[in-house]
Write a structure and sequence with these properties.
The structure holds two protein chains of two kinds.
Chain A: E1 5-8, H1 11-23, E2 28-32, E3 43-47, H2 52-61
Antiparallel strand pairs in A: 1-3, 2-3
Chain B: E1 2-3, H1 15-27, H2 38-58, E2 66-69, H3 72-83, E3 89-93, H4 98-107, E4 114-117, H5 124-134, E5 139-145, H6 157-167, E6 171-174, E7 193-197, E8 209-213, H7 251-267, H8 270-287, E9 292-294, E10 307-311, H9 316-325, E11 328-329, H10 338-344, E12 352-354, H11 362-383
Parallel strand pairs in B: 1-11, 3-4, 3-5, 5-6, 6-7
Antiparallel strand pairs in B: 2-8, 7-8, 9-10, 10-12
Helix pairs in contact in B: 1-7, 2-7, 3-4, 5-6, 8-11
Classes of the chains: A alpha+beta, B alpha/beta.
Chain lengths: 70, 384
Amino acid sequence: MNDQMIYVSSVTQAMRGQAVLQKHGIRCDVHRQTGPAQHGCGYYLLLRSGGRGDAEALLRQAGVRVLTVP
Amino acid sequence: MIYWDNAATTYPKPAAVQRAMDRALTEAGANPGRGGYPMSLRAARILLDCREQAALLCGEQDPARVILTPGCTASLNVVLQGLLRGGGRAVISDLEHNAVVRPLHALSPSQPVYDVVPVEPGDPEETVRRFAAAIRPDTRVICCTCASNVSGLCPPVRQIGRLAGQAGIPFVCDGAQAAGHRPMTPDEVPADYLCLPGHKGLYGPMGTGLLVCRTQPAFPPLTQGGTGTASADFVQPHELPEGYESGTVNVPGFAGLAAGIRFVRQQGEALPRRQAALMREMYRILRRMPGVVLYTPEPDEEYVPVLCCNLGAWPSEQAARLLARQGLAVRAGLHCAPLAHRKYGTLARGMVRFCPSAFTTREQMYRSCKIIEECARKALQSEK
């Protein structure tokens, strides 16, 4: 499942990211970070369709701050 | 009651604002940006919606650059205290509200760190020349209101912003009185930091404000605390917007503000045009009334719909008291803007301020003028 998770810096970035991906036909959900986190609390996008590479590129292009992918 | 105190807070609010706040309280009453369960995410979505509405209003592409604050005063404090944290001076206009003057004054009460530039009505070039002349080597910020909350006069912020940009000095705009009446896009208000209240011309509730950062802030937030992000780190994150929003954000309030901004955007240019026409007509009626003292020329495009006057030689508070007895809710005194009152020569007695909203009718305006006429007559009689 990890390869379908994209970590972002905040809930605002997560929701912006979700909107960006949905606009491009990539379905995803916003989730609270669950495992031991590098920096503490945060959010991630769980992709339900599409590849992570494409999704990350779209997010970065839209100015959504993507964090280091575990 | 006929409510004319809309320059302070608009009343009533559109029904959609009340509905949005009610819905937020009942359906999204959890902390935003902290939990992962549906209600917390709903609350966060409400905040994002408000940021998106504000971004659309201000011509900003990235809603994450919209910081939600408890009010325009809070927004101004964050920016002014932040920019002058390491020293330096500010250049401000002589129309500024105490929300600008007091934070600056507090930085160095014995030796003010701000230079005040007189705005010249009807001569934007002269005003800009004065701003340019006031810039010193240690000027760190230029701050100007988009419209006076006393007279409605609008300084040429477009040109002042251009000047600030050329000089490489951050430009801060106080849009308290102009938002909802004037475009807030970068073309019209080229501010690095645009500070707006939610509860005036944007028809949101009290306790809401916006700070639109067109430039990434290089200063730390005024308030440190929980952001729901990077919690293992004791150092406050500076990332927009959460880094500048420590603590639980007012979700019902910003639900209301989002609805308020939608209302303003849906009305488009018709709303400010209607209010400007109403105040022009009121001005023409008052101008002919014995005992009514006006302080500005007939308002044109250089003004937002704020009209100030006095009755005879009465102190403004005395006039406001009599008007209130007749059912008019007006604001008298200095309107927290002593610089502006000094400019108009009314520091001693203040002025009586009238400001319409989207819900003020012509019939209410005519009725109000009759009441003002009667009160002005009494003011004149009391002088004999």
